[in-house]
Amino acid sequence: MALSRVPGDENLYVGGIFTLRRRSALENTGITHIVSVLKYDFKDFEDWDKYGHLSIEVDDVEDENLLGEFEKSGKFIEDALKSEKDGKKGGVLVHCAMGKSRSVTIVIAYLLRQYPHYTVSLALALVRESRPMAEPNDGFMAQLELYKDMGCPRDIDAHPKYQRWLYQREVELALAAGMAPERVRFEDEEAQDERQNGDKEIELRCRKCRRTLATTPYLVTHLPTPPKTQIDPMTEPISSLTESLPPAPLHNACTHHFLHPLSWMRPTLEQGLLDGRLECPNPKCNAQIGRYAWQGMKCSCGVWVCPAFSLQKGRVDEIVKRGEGRPGQGRIRLPPAMRGGKQNL
User: Could you tell me which residue ranges the Tyrosine specific protein phosphatases domain spans (predicted)?
Assistant: First the structure.
């Protein structure tokens, strides 16, 4: 199974590196362009210059960033398939070492980009019709799901979800070395993607001085651990840097509100410590309102949140408001520092 045609109207193939030595097969299938998804020196292959070539030098490991290559590879494949040579449309071979993980990931990303109604699982099933061995590693599958969730943007680098994902990788590397990250991404200073928060909006205020500390877009929701008699995959630790889990119903088990890092935490977080106290940013108050721990923290409900920036419910007031209604009513009242977009929380 050196060369497999992806089902559909396009002349798109996926395979392993040994496919490149089958010159007759490449000619018979009309291959004009090749996408190589591995680190390799191709100088020994004959007639290499006759093909348009895109090289993506990545390893087949779960923490490799292939997501950042999806637009470049997708545009290359699209243009190559539309090209014509000797009156015939172009053909594209996407290959890695075995034609199982990296190359299949690039093909799926192309399908998601070209056909918005495709899901990741549907695109993978399509490839498997002709190549049953197709199996991207778990890390690449997660990147494909994120790519789909982002809407397969043409400018991946600028997308807030991609920026958040890159930052999460930085944090994970720092924590693996037993250190706090070198930089802190303050969510209220970054471009935000649209989030569905429902009709309930929340404002958290310091109970002592009434200073607004956070509003709905910057809260990290989490689900309490179910009773031990239930088996639920959602009991795994969650990261406060990724997209939050679906909003949980109100419950009394949690004694913490978890937040994304906000700019009022800057003086504390930029000290470079792994954990410590969070104090009210009002200089006339400075009440201790919570704690932070880059290495994570277990909520009283049993869910582990990592990294964790928490406010104790006993130290803050939760104001619940409705998002719908007449203009000016039922909206979160933003603190002066957030009005006009000139400053942040």
Answer: 71-132
